[in-house]
Amino acid sequence: MKRAKSRFVEEEAARTSYLEQLRRRWGLRAPRQLLKMFRRHRTSFETILANIFEVLDSNGGKFAFPTVAAVAKMRPELVQEIVKEGCEVASHGYNHLRYPTLTPEGRLEDLTRSLKTFKQMGIKIDGFRAPYDNYTDDMPAMLEKQSLVWDGGFGYRSEHREKDYFFNLEIEGRTSGVTYIPLSIWSDDKMIDEMGMNPEAVSKRLKLEVERTSKNEAMVMFDLHPIRIGQPEFVHCLDDVLQHANSLGGWSSTPVEAVRYWNKHRTWKSDATFCLLLTGDIDNWVFSDYLRRVLWKRMS
Question: How is domain 2-295 classified at the CATH fold level?
């Protein structure tokens, strides 16, 4: 009973934090932002994924979907479809909670619960990204104990954003087994929702980042949420960036394949000049999941 009460208190605090973040980030535009998400969810997630897979197939690209486990188990057939298409599913926690608002025990419980849920679904999880890219200093030590291969959110911290290669951390005097991946600041929510970029501007920005990466023979990871980049008016941005990457001799891979290959060979597969990692978080399948996050406890 005490443990259940603790979880309820932490999730209640996280929901309060979400509402506060919504107010701080969007201010008077918060209702408009919720309306945008409502309209985007008029496109079914089946269609969104089909749009993305069609572009990937035509360009030989791969994609990774850090997915909230509580959401994943609502539609396991969609998660299985991702794997069937040769893409990667990563953990995005069990609930879409801000990890800094939880106790260390709460963070560990949410992470391990997500991994257990995916295992029960028959999904192998090698990667993780914390919701909102929010990490605490002790989280690398927590991730180290979960037999994960990569993390794609800790690298969004300001001290890591300028890196353009995979890196490891020193944890208790030892080099981490988890490989950390720098995350580009050019996410879809920044470009589309915050800056109001149209599809042409989004394509141009992504292609510029790809060009910069190719010149350094390095790697770049984008966070392009399917709910935006999979929409009919934006999915051609994905096509544009993949075509451009291919023309420059890039390799589009899942993070787990790229990390394992790089750690073994210290080069990119097939003598590629650089590595492009396309990722996008799945926080919800339908708009009502946003209401569950804000207004009441998501059912276990």
Answer: TIM Barrel (3.20.20)
